[in-house]
C-alpha cells in the first residue's frame, strides 16, 4: 500500500508564513506544501526561493498562488495572514482588523478543504482561534491555535540557561493567553524529573523569587523586544508551528500548550486559551487538568476573562 501524502496549506506569505514553510521543509513535515497570498508577486518569489533549496531537504513539492484553490485538499491549513504587530502595540489591539479577515477567509477555506484541521497563528491568536472555530462551525478539536507553544519554549530556554542544563530536560509551561495575561505554571515545572521548586543540585544555580520574576518578565516581553529590533518574530514561531504540524500530521500524541476552546476546564467556560493538551491527527484530543495551586488557578481564570472580554467586544 502506498502511504497517504499529507498536504499543508499556509495562508500568508509574510515573514511568519514563509518561515513556517521553510521550517516544515527542513523537518520533512509533509510531502506537499502550498502557500496562498493575495500578493501574487510576493508568494511567487517566496515559493521560488524555497524551491531552489529543495535539493538540501527531504523531498517535497511546494506551490503558491493568489488563488485560494491552491489550498484544495489540505490536511492542515495554517493561518498566518493578517495585520502585523507594530512596536508598542498589544496583540489585542490587532484583533479588529484580523477578525474581519477571518470572516472573509474561513468560508473560502472550508469550500476548498472541508476536511482540514485549522491551525491559527495570526495574533491575537486566542481571540482568532475562537472566532475561526465559531465561523467554521467545526468541532472544537479541529480548530486550534499556536497558543503558548512559543512562550513555553522561551520559558524553558531561560530556565535551562539559568540552571545550566539542556533545554530538552526542562519541562515547564506558560499557560493562558498568548499575551500579557499569560502565566508560568511553576508548581508543575520540573528538570530531569526533579520538581523545579525543589531544585538544589550542588554546583548549579537555584531559583530565587527574584530569578523567577526576571525570567517570566523576559518571557512575557520577549516578542516586544524582537519586534522593536527587527520588526517581526518569525524564526521561533516558524519552528514552533512546524512542531505542532508534526504532532498533527504524524499522529504523535504530543503534549503541547496549544490554544483551543475550553468548556468546564477548572471552571473556565467558552474561551480559547492555552493549557497542556494532547495533540494528534484528529486535532486536540484532550486537555490535561494539572494539579495547580490556587494562585495559578486564579491566574488562568483572570487570563480567560481577559480573552473573553476581547471576544465579546468583537461581537462573538
From TrEMBL:
Amino acids binding beta-D-fructose 1,6-bisphosphate: 156, 171
MF annotations from Gene Ontology: L-lactate dehydrogenase (NAD+) activity
Superkingdom field: Bacteria
Amino-acid positions noted as binding substrate in the UniProt annotation, renumbered to this chain: 85, 91, 123-126, 151-154, 233
SUPFAM superfamilies: LDH C-terminal domain-like, NAD(P)-binding Rossmann-fold domains
Subcellular location: Cytoplasm
Record EC number: 1.1.1.27
Summary of activators and inhibitors of this protein: Allosterically activated by fructose 1,6-bisphosphate (FBP).
Gene3D superfamilies: Lactate dehydrogenase/glycoside hydrolase, family 4, C-terminal, NAD(P)-binding Rossmann-like Domain
GO cellular component, one term: cytoplasm
Catalysis: reaction(s): (S)-lactate + NAD(+) = pyruvate + NADH + H(+)
Pathway the protein contributes to: Fermentation; pyruvate fermentation to lactate; (S)-lactate from pyruvate: step 1/1
All residue ranges annotated as the Lactate/malate dehydrogenase N-terminal domain in the record: 7-145
Binding-site residues, NAD(+): 12-17, 37, 42, 82-83, 98, 104, 121-123, 146
Claim: Phosphoprotein is one of the keywords in the record: yes
Lactate/malate dehydrogenase C-terminal domain segment(s): 148-312
Active site: 178
Pfam families, A to Z: Ldh_1_C, Ldh_1_N
Keyword entries, A-Z: Allosteric enzyme, Cytoplasm, NAD, Oxidoreductase, Phosphoprotein
GO biological process: glycolytic process; lactate metabolic process
The protein's role, per its UniProt record: Catalyzes the conversion of lactate to pyruvate.
Family (UniProt): Belongs to the LDH/MDH superfamily. LDH family.
HAMAP family for the chain: Lactate_dehydrog
Protein name according to UniProt: L-lactate dehydrogenase
Amino acid at each position: 500500500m502506498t502511504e497517504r501524502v499529507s498536504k499543508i496549506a499556509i495562508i500568508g506569505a509574510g515573514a511568519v508564513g514563509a518561515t513556517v514553510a521553510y521550517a516544515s521543509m527542513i523537518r520533512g513535515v509533509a510531502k506537499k506544501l502550498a502557500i496562498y497570498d493575495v500578493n501574487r508577486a510576493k508568494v511567487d518569489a517566496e515559493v521560488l526561493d524555497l524551491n531552489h533549496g529543495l535539493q538540501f531537504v527531504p523531498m517535497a513539492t511546494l506551490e503558491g498562488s493568489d488563488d485560494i484553490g491552491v489550498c484544495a485538499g489540505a490536511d492542515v491549513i495554517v493561518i498566518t495572514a493578517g495585520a502585523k504587530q507594530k512596536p508598542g502595540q498589544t496583540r489585542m489591539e490587532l484583533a479588529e482588523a484580523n477578525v474581519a479577515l477571518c470572516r472573509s477567509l474561513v468560508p473560502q477555506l472550508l469550500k476548498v478543504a472541508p476536511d482540514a484541521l485549522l491551525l491559527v497563528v495570526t495574533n491575537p491568536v486566542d481571540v482568532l482561534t475562537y472566532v475561526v472555530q465559531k465561523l467554521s462551525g467545526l468541532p472544537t478539536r479541529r480548530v486550534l491555535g499556536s497558543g503558548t507553544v512559543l512562550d513555553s519554549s522561551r520559558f524553558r530556554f531561560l530556565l535551562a540557561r539559568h540552571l545550566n542544563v539542556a533545554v530538552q530536560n526542562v519541562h515547564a509551561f506558560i499557560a493562558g493567553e498568548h499575551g500579557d495575561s499569560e502565566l508560568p505554571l511553576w508548581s508543575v515545572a520540573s528538570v530531569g524529573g526533579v520538581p523545579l521548586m525543589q531544585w538544589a543540585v550542588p554546583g548549579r544555580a537555584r531559583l530565587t523569587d527574584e530569578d523567577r520574576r526576571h525570567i517570566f518578565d523576559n518571557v512575557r516581553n520577549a516578542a516586544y523586544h524582537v519586534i522593536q529590533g527587527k520588526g517581526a518574530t518569525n524564526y521561533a514561531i516558524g519552528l514552533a508551528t512546524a512542531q505542532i504540524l508534526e504532532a498533527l500530521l504524524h499522529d504523535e500524541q504530543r503534549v503541547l500548550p496549544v490554544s483551543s476552546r475550553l468548556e468546564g476546564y477548572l471552571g473556565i467556560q467558552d474561551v480559547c486559551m492555552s493549557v497542556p493538551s494532547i495533540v494528534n491527527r484528529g486535532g486536540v484530543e484532550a486537555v490535561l487538568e494539572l494539579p495547580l495551586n490556587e494562585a495559578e488557578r486564579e491566574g488562568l481564570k483572570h487570563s480567560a476573562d481577559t480573552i473573553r472580554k476581547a471576544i465579546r467586544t468583537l461581537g462573538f
